[in-house]
Amino acid sequence: SKAKVFEKGEATNVTFKDVAGLTEPKTEIQEIVEFLRNPQRYTDLGGKIPKGALLVGPPGTGKTLLAKAVAGEANVPFFSMSGSDFVEMFVGVGASRVRDLFRQAKEKAPCIVFIDEIDAVGRARGKNPNMGANDERENTLNQLLTEMDGFGSNSGVIILAATNRADILDKALLRAGRFDRQITVDLPELKDRVEIFNVHLRNIKKDDTVDVEVMARQTAGFSGADIANVCNEAALIAARNNKKTVDRDSFMSAIDRIICGLEHSSKIIS
Ligand code: ATP
Protein backbone atom coordinates (compact mmCIF):
# COMPACT_ATOMS: atom_id res chain seq x y z
CA SER A 1 0.00 0.00 0.00
CA LYS A 2 1.24 3.48 -0.77
CA ALA A 3 2.45 5.52 2.15
CA LYS A 4 1.12 9.05 2.15
CA VAL A 5 3.79 11.68 1.56
CA PHE A 6 4.09 12.27 5.27
CA GLU A 7 2.25 10.45 7.91
CA LYS A 8 3.08 12.93 10.58
CA GLY A 9 4.43 10.85 13.35
CA GLU A 10 1.20 9.08 14.07
CA ALA A 11 0.87 6.36 16.60
CA THR A 12 0.15 3.03 14.94
CA ASN A 13 -1.77 0.14 16.39
CA VAL A 14 -0.22 -2.43 14.08
CA THR A 15 1.77 -5.08 15.95
CA PHE A 16 3.61 -8.30 15.05
CA LYS A 17 0.31 -10.17 15.48
CA ASP A 18 -0.92 -8.50 12.29
CA VAL A 19 2.14 -9.61 10.36
CA ALA A 20 1.69 -13.26 9.40
CA GLY A 21 4.63 -15.44 8.41
CA LEU A 22 7.85 -13.41 8.02
CA THR A 23 9.39 -15.34 10.91
CA GLU A 24 12.98 -14.49 9.99
CA PRO A 25 12.40 -10.78 9.28
CA LYS A 26 10.47 -10.42 12.54
CA THR A 27 13.33 -12.00 14.49
CA GLU A 28 15.88 -9.78 12.77
CA ILE A 29 13.88 -6.63 13.35
CA GLN A 30 13.07 -7.47 16.97
CA GLU A 31 16.38 -5.95 17.99
CA ILE A 32 15.27 -2.58 16.62
CA VAL A 33 12.15 -2.80 18.75
CA GLU A 34 14.43 -3.37 21.76
CA PHE A 35 16.60 -0.36 20.83
CA LEU A 36 13.53 1.85 20.66
CA ARG A 37 12.08 0.56 23.91
CA ASN A 38 15.23 0.79 25.92
CA PRO A 39 18.08 2.61 24.16
CA GLN A 40 20.04 3.10 27.36
CA ARG A 41 20.62 -0.59 27.79
CA TYR A 42 22.80 -0.39 24.66
CA THR A 43 24.33 3.04 25.00
CA ASP A 44 25.34 2.48 28.63
CA LEU A 45 27.57 -0.33 27.41
CA GLY A 46 29.06 1.89 24.73
CA GLY A 47 27.09 0.30 21.91
CA LYS A 48 26.02 2.26 18.87
CA ILE A 49 22.45 1.76 17.84
CA PRO A 50 22.12 1.19 14.08
CA LYS A 51 20.57 4.04 12.13
CA GLY A 52 18.36 1.88 10.08
CA ALA A 53 17.65 -1.19 8.05
CA LEU A 54 16.66 -1.84 4.48
CA LEU A 55 13.71 -4.16 3.88
CA VAL A 56 14.19 -5.90 0.55
CA GLY A 57 11.57 -7.95 -1.24
CA PRO A 58 8.84 -8.13 -3.90
CA PRO A 59 5.78 -5.82 -3.82
CA GLY A 60 3.03 -6.62 -1.36
CA THR A 61 5.05 -8.88 0.91
CA GLY A 62 4.42 -6.82 4.05
CA LYS A 63 7.40 -4.46 4.24
CA THR A 64 5.27 -1.44 5.11
CA LEU A 65 3.24 -3.55 7.50
CA LEU A 66 6.40 -4.78 9.23
CA ALA A 67 7.80 -1.25 9.59
CA LYS A 68 4.52 -0.10 11.13
CA ALA A 69 4.53 -3.08 13.46
CA VAL A 70 8.00 -2.11 14.73
CA ALA A 71 6.61 1.31 15.67
CA GLY A 72 3.54 -0.33 17.18
CA GLU A 73 5.54 -2.85 19.21
CA ALA A 74 7.86 -0.16 20.55
CA ASN A 75 4.96 2.26 20.98
CA VAL A 76 6.74 5.08 19.15
CA PRO A 77 5.51 7.48 16.41
CA PHE A 78 5.64 6.40 12.76
CA PHE A 79 6.68 8.88 10.06
CA SER A 80 6.64 7.87 6.43
CA MET A 81 7.37 9.06 2.94
CA SER A 82 7.45 7.37 -0.42
CA GLY A 83 10.42 7.80 -2.71
CA SER A 84 8.16 7.98 -5.74
CA ASP A 85 6.52 11.13 -4.38
CA PHE A 86 9.77 13.00 -4.86
CA VAL A 87 10.43 12.19 -8.46
CA GLU A 88 8.17 14.84 -9.99
CA MET A 89 8.89 17.57 -7.51
CA PHE A 90 10.06 21.05 -8.35
CA VAL A 91 13.65 21.95 -7.74
CA GLY A 92 14.41 22.32 -4.07
CA VAL A 93 11.13 20.90 -2.86
CA GLY A 94 12.27 17.30 -2.41
CA ALA A 95 15.31 18.22 -0.36
CA SER A 96 13.39 20.61 1.86
CA ARG A 97 10.68 18.01 2.46
CA VAL A 98 13.31 15.53 3.56
CA ARG A 99 14.78 18.16 5.88
CA ASP A 100 11.33 18.87 7.34
CA LEU A 101 10.59 15.22 7.87
CA PHE A 102 13.78 14.64 9.82
CA ARG A 103 13.35 17.83 11.85
CA GLN A 104 9.93 16.60 12.96
CA ALA A 105 11.22 13.10 13.60
CA LYS A 106 14.07 14.34 15.79
CA GLU A 107 11.57 16.28 17.88
CA LYS A 108 9.52 13.17 18.45
CA ALA A 109 12.36 10.68 18.95
CA PRO A 110 12.43 7.83 19.68
CA CYS A 111 10.52 7.11 16.49
CA ILE A 112 10.52 5.33 13.14
CA VAL A 113 10.97 7.04 9.79
CA PHE A 114 9.82 4.76 6.98
CA ILE A 115 10.85 5.41 3.37
CA ASP A 116 8.85 3.31 0.93
CA GLU A 117 10.20 2.76 -2.61
CA ILE A 118 13.56 4.21 -1.68
CA ASP A 119 14.90 3.16 -5.08
CA ALA A 120 12.88 5.98 -6.68
CA VAL A 121 15.18 8.52 -4.98
CA GLY A 122 18.05 6.21 -4.16
CA ARG A 123 18.99 4.88 -7.60
CA ALA A 124 22.69 5.13 -8.32
CA ARG A 125 23.51 8.71 -9.24
CA GLY A 126 24.29 9.75 -12.77
CA LYS A 127 23.01 6.53 -14.32
CA ASN A 128 19.82 7.85 -15.82
CA PRO A 129 20.38 11.27 -17.33
CA ASN A 130 16.93 12.51 -18.26
CA MET A 131 16.56 16.20 -17.65
CA GLY A 132 15.81 18.29 -14.62
CA ALA A 133 13.68 15.85 -12.69
CA ASN A 134 16.77 13.73 -12.30
CA ASP A 135 18.75 16.57 -10.74
CA GLU A 136 15.99 17.02 -8.24
CA ARG A 137 16.09 13.34 -7.43
CA GLU A 138 19.82 13.64 -6.77
CA ASN A 139 19.27 16.66 -4.55
CA THR A 140 16.74 14.69 -2.58
CA LEU A 141 19.08 11.73 -2.27
CA ASN A 142 21.94 13.98 -1.17
CA GLN A 143 19.72 15.55 1.46
CA LEU A 144 18.74 12.12 2.71
CA LEU A 145 22.41 11.12 3.02
CA THR A 146 23.16 14.37 4.82
CA GLU A 147 20.33 13.76 7.27
CA MET A 148 21.45 10.21 7.94
CA ASP A 149 24.96 11.38 8.71
CA GLY A 150 23.78 14.42 10.61
CA PHE A 151 22.13 12.84 13.58
CA GLY A 152 24.10 10.82 16.04
CA SER A 153 23.46 7.11 16.05
CA ASN A 154 21.94 7.41 19.50
CA SER A 155 19.39 10.06 18.54
CA GLY A 156 16.56 7.54 18.73
CA VAL A 157 15.47 8.05 15.12
CA ILE A 158 15.52 4.73 13.29
CA ILE A 159 15.06 4.72 9.54
CA LEU A 160 13.49 1.75 7.82
CA ALA A 161 13.40 1.78 4.04
CA ALA A 162 11.80 -0.60 1.57
CA THR A 163 12.74 -1.59 -1.94
CA ASN A 164 12.36 -4.46 -4.35
CA ARG A 165 15.58 -3.50 -6.11
CA ALA A 166 18.49 -3.31 -3.67
CA ASP A 167 20.84 -3.91 -6.60
CA ILE A 168 20.14 -0.54 -8.23
CA LEU A 169 20.63 1.53 -5.08
CA ASP A 170 23.40 4.05 -4.83
CA LYS A 171 26.25 2.40 -2.91
CA ALA A 172 26.48 5.49 -0.72
CA LEU A 173 23.17 4.49 0.87
CA LEU A 174 24.48 1.08 1.84
CA ARG A 175 27.68 2.29 3.45
CA ALA A 176 28.43 1.63 7.13
CA GLY A 177 26.47 3.98 9.34
CA ARG A 178 23.63 4.24 6.81
CA PHE A 179 21.57 1.28 5.61
CA ASP A 180 24.17 -1.25 6.58
CA ARG A 181 21.60 -3.89 7.54
CA GLN A 182 19.40 -5.63 5.03
CA ILE A 183 16.38 -7.71 5.90
CA THR A 184 14.94 -9.94 3.20
CA VAL A 185 11.17 -10.11 2.99
CA ASP A 186 10.26 -12.92 0.59
CA LEU A 187 7.01 -14.18 -0.89
CA PRO A 188 5.22 -16.41 1.63
CA GLU A 189 5.64 -20.18 1.63
CA LEU A 190 2.71 -22.56 2.08
CA LYS A 191 2.58 -22.39 5.88
CA ASP A 192 2.96 -18.60 5.78
CA ARG A 193 0.08 -18.33 3.33
CA VAL A 194 -2.09 -20.31 5.74
CA GLU A 195 -1.23 -17.77 8.45
CA ILE A 196 -1.85 -14.80 6.17
CA PHE A 197 -5.24 -16.22 5.17
CA ASN A 198 -6.10 -16.65 8.83
CA VAL A 199 -5.23 -13.01 9.59
CA HIS A 200 -7.39 -11.75 6.74
CA LEU A 201 -10.26 -14.15 7.42
CA ARG A 202 -10.66 -12.78 10.95
CA ASN A 203 -13.47 -10.46 9.90
CA ILE A 204 -14.89 -12.51 7.04
CA LYS A 205 -18.09 -14.42 7.63
CA LYS A 206 -17.00 -17.65 5.98
CA ASP A 207 -18.81 -20.97 6.20
CA ASP A 208 -17.44 -24.46 6.74
CA THR A 209 -17.09 -25.26 3.03
CA VAL A 210 -13.95 -23.11 3.16
CA ASP A 211 -10.66 -24.95 3.60
CA VAL A 212 -7.73 -22.64 4.33
CA GLU A 213 -5.11 -25.33 3.62
CA VAL A 214 -6.53 -25.91 0.16
CA MET A 215 -6.59 -22.20 -0.60
CA ALA A 216 -3.01 -21.79 0.61
CA ARG A 217 -1.96 -24.57 -1.78
CA GLN A 218 -3.77 -22.90 -4.67
CA THR A 219 -2.07 -19.57 -4.12
CA ALA A 220 1.62 -20.36 -4.64
CA GLY A 221 3.37 -17.19 -5.77
CA PHE A 222 0.79 -14.89 -4.17
CA SER A 223 2.02 -12.08 -1.94
CA GLY A 224 0.37 -11.18 1.35
CA ALA A 225 -1.30 -8.29 -0.45
CA ASP A 226 -2.70 -10.70 -3.07
CA ILE A 227 -4.11 -12.92 -0.31
CA ALA A 228 -5.68 -9.91 1.44
CA ASN A 229 -7.20 -9.11 -1.93
CA VAL A 230 -8.59 -12.64 -2.35
CA CYS A 231 -10.37 -12.42 1.01
CA ASN A 232 -11.91 -9.08 0.25
CA GLU A 233 -12.87 -10.05 -3.29
CA ALA A 234 -14.49 -13.28 -2.06
CA ALA A 235 -16.71 -11.30 0.32
CA LEU A 236 -17.74 -8.97 -2.51
CA ILE A 237 -18.52 -11.89 -4.82
CA ALA A 238 -20.61 -13.59 -2.12
CA ALA A 239 -22.53 -10.37 -1.49
CA ARG A 240 -23.14 -9.88 -5.20
CA ASN A 241 -24.65 -13.37 -5.29
CA ASN A 242 -26.85 -12.63 -2.30
CA LYS A 243 -25.16 -15.23 -0.15
CA LYS A 244 -25.39 -15.02 3.62
CA THR A 245 -21.87 -16.34 4.15
CA VAL A 246 -18.68 -16.40 2.10
CA ASP A 247 -18.40 -19.94 0.77
CA ARG A 248 -15.77 -21.97 -1.05
CA ASP A 249 -17.08 -21.03 -4.50
CA SER A 250 -16.72 -17.33 -3.74
CA PHE A 251 -13.12 -17.87 -2.67
CA MET A 252 -12.36 -19.98 -5.75
CA SER A 253 -13.72 -17.25 -8.05
CA ALA A 254 -11.71 -14.66 -6.15
CA ILE A 255 -8.51 -16.71 -6.48
CA ASP A 256 -9.15 -17.11 -10.22
CA ARG A 257 -9.62 -13.39 -10.62
CA ILE A 258 -6.41 -12.56 -8.82
CA ILE A 259 -4.50 -15.16 -10.87
CA CYS A 260 -5.81 -13.54 -14.07
CA GLY A 261 -4.74 -10.17 -12.77
CA LEU A 262 -1.27 -11.43 -11.91
CA GLU A 263 -0.83 -13.04 -15.33
CA HIS A 264 -2.05 -9.89 -17.01
CA SER A 265 0.36 -7.60 -15.14
CA SER A 266 3.35 -9.88 -15.66
CA LYS A 267 2.63 -9.87 -19.41
CA ILE A 268 2.67 -6.08 -19.39
CA ILE A 269 6.02 -6.02 -17.60
CA SER A 270 7.76 -8.62 -19.76
P1 ATP B 1 4.98 -2.47 -1.61
O1 ATP B 1 6.40 -2.83 -1.91
O2 ATP B 1 4.04 -2.67 -2.77
O3 ATP B 1 4.79 -1.16 -0.90
P2 ATP B 1 4.83 -3.90 0.87
O4 ATP B 1 5.81 -5.01 0.92
O5 ATP B 1 5.14 -2.66 1.62
O6 ATP B 1 4.46 -3.60 -0.61
P3 ATP B 1 2.44 -3.91 2.39
O7 ATP B 1 2.01 -2.57 1.92
O8 ATP B 1 2.98 -4.02 3.74
O9 ATP B 1 3.45 -4.51 1.36
O10 ATP B 1 1.26 -4.97 2.22
C1 ATP B 1 0.01 -4.59 1.68
C2 ATP B 1 -1.10 -5.28 2.44
O11 ATP B 1 -1.03 -6.69 2.22
C3 ATP B 1 -0.99 -5.13 3.94
O12 ATP B 1 -1.61 -3.95 4.38
C4 ATP B 1 -1.71 -6.38 4.42
O13 ATP B 1 -3.10 -6.21 4.38
C5 ATP B 1 -1.33 -7.41 3.37
N1 ATP B 1 -0.14 -8.18 3.77
C6 ATP B 1 1.05 -8.23 3.13
N2 ATP B 1 1.91 -9.04 3.76
C7 ATP B 1 1.26 -9.51 4.84
C8 ATP B 1 1.63 -10.40 5.90
N3 ATP B 1 2.84 -10.96 5.98
N4 ATP B 1 0.70 -10.66 6.86
C9 ATP B 1 -0.53 -10.11 6.80
N5 ATP B 1 -0.92 -9.28 5.84
C10 ATP B 1 -0.05 -8.97 4.85
Automatic annotation (TrEMBL):
Primary role: Acts as a processive, ATP-dependent zinc metallopeptidase for both cytoplasmic and membrane proteins. Plays a role in the quality control of integral membrane proteins.
Localization: Cell membrane; Membrane
Portion held of the full protein: 174 to 443 of 703
Amino-acid positions noted as binding ATP in the UniProt annotation, renumbered to this chain: G57, P58, P59, G60, T61, G62, K63, T64
AAA+ ATPase domain ranges (all copies): 49-189
Gene designation per UniProt: ftsH
Family (UniProt): Belongs to the AAA ATPase family.
Name assigned to this protein: ATP-dependent zinc metalloprotease FtsH
Top-level taxon of the source organism: Bacteria
Source organism per UniProt: Duncaniella freteri
Assembly and interaction partners: Homohexamer.
